[in-house]
Design goal:
The chain is an alpha/beta fold. The chain has 2 domains: 124 residues, Rossmann fold; 99 residues, Arc Repressor Mutant, subunit A (Orthogonal Bundle). The protein contains 9 helices and 12 strands. Helix 4 links the parallel strand 4 and strand 5. The structure holds calcium ion (CA). Calcium ion binds next to loops.
Length: 238
């Protein structure tokens, strides 16, 4: 893949790979991710997952270490050895410093010890995928609007938009999930770095301001009543 290539609207559906042999954990995780609109492939063994990894470009690999046919750490080592930079979030049952250091040394982007809180896992997933996108020098373009994920600048036909940090945060999550409905809760979670609670009213205000600033951007920022918002190309909305 050409890393400099912009991320296009058709790439909007991110696909995750989950390698976890505990059916209960795999099931609840997959369900939570799918509820957020993401596609998830689930495998319980390294063998099946390795085939998938060679044929599909995943936005993220969530990797359990204790697998029936192979140590997940070996799969990670092989992945990095063949220069596959798919972001990897490791799930480990052992919460020991040595283990954490080993996992990061092998090239994991982050790790989480079991048992974990689903909300924390989702926050880690967002952080890992966001960092990976920024690293790739990616940009997202919809209509005449572009967002540079590394510098976090948004522009319309080269004219930089003046956005407050929160307006930028809201725009970022809408663009990352462009073409899909984003709930107010998802917006709140995306902005979770801020200490204060973000009310629904505040989100409505930021969206209102964004709409004004995006007037000439050829994007359609629609309110989905009682749920959230949908950002897409005006041409696609027509
Ligand atoms: Ca396991």
């Amino acid at each position: 893949m050409d890393c400099a290539a912009p991320i296009r609207a058709e790439d909007a559906n991110v696909r995750f790979l989950l390698i976890e042999d505990d059916a209960q954990i795999a099931d609840s995780l997959a369900r939570a991710l799918r509820a957020g609109g993401d596609r998830v492939d689930v495998y319980g063994t390294c063998r099946d997952a390795e085939q998938a990894l060679r044929s599909v470009e995943y936005a993220l690999l969530i990797l359990d270490l204790g697998l029936p046919d192979r140590d997940g750490a070996n799969l990670l080592r092989d992945l990095r050895a063949r220069n596959d930079h798919t972001p990897v979030l490791v799930l480990t049952a052992r919460d020991e410093l040595d283990e954490r250091v080993r996992v990061l040394d092998l090239g994991a982007d982050d790790y989480l010890s079991k048992p974990f809180d689903l909300a924390e896992l989702q926050a880690r997933i967002r952080a890992v995928t966001r960092r990976a996108l920024a690293r790739s020098g990616g940009e997202i373009a919809v209509g005449k609007l572009r967002l540079d994920l590394a510098s976090r600048h948004a522009d319309v036909e080269g004219n930089i938009l003046e956005l407050s940090p929160r307006e930028l945060g809201v725009l970022e999550v809408l663009l990352l999930r462009r073409g899909r409905v984003v709930s107010k809760q998802q917006i709140q979670e995306h902005l979770c770095d801020w200490s204060e609670e973000l009310t629904d009213g505040a989100i409505e205000l930021y969206v209102h301001r964004l709409r004004k600033k995006l007037k000439s951007a050829d994007v359609d920022l629609r309110t989905v009543r009682g749920f959230g918002y949908l950002l897409r190309d005006s041409a696609a909305a027509a």
